[in-house]
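Can anyone check this?
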Amino acid sequence: MMAGGDAPDIVQLAEAIHGYSSRGQLLPLDQFVADAELDLDARFGTNYRQYQYEGSLYALPDRGGAMIVYYNRDMFDAAGIGYPTAEWTWAEFLAAAQALTIKDGDATTQYGFAAGGWWPWWMSFIYQNGGAVLDENGAPVMNSDAVKEALQFYNDLVYTYEVAPVAARLRRPRHEQPRSVVRAGQSRHDYDRLLEHLDAA
């Protein structure tokens, strides 16, 4: 639409926004914010800052939240293990996921964890481990030891420990949504908001 000169008035872009703002395809919102006397810090905290580019604001958050863990109490009770707590380490999390994973021969009939490919899920492990995607100056720091360790652990949940299904086992592999195995009773929990209460071991 933009290439054809018929751009929409409002678009939802999320993390893709600066592919447009950097090309001058979006209208800065600074004057609108000023006219509305909108206190961005009071209304959005720091969340709006990700939508700034070269000193101008190009979008406003429409929602926000935090990752949480959904877990199946019946499965925990059947396995005789305690429910997740804020004090859990990765080692304790892995031990629970292994105890909750059930196999019938070579086939896994119940997974202990439902991993997914959406960035907030694996990024939460990065921050749990003391890593970051960008430093305080906005420079990428994805090659740090903390980040590599977190991503390796997340990957190992699927391919080494086999406590989480590969994407092909999920109902919507294109989006790598773990909800399908959770709803089917095949997984102990799912990520759906920013999980920050597992301390890295």
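Reply from J.R.: I decoded it. The domain at 69-191 is CATH 3.40.190.10 (D-Maltodextrin-Binding Protein; domain 2).
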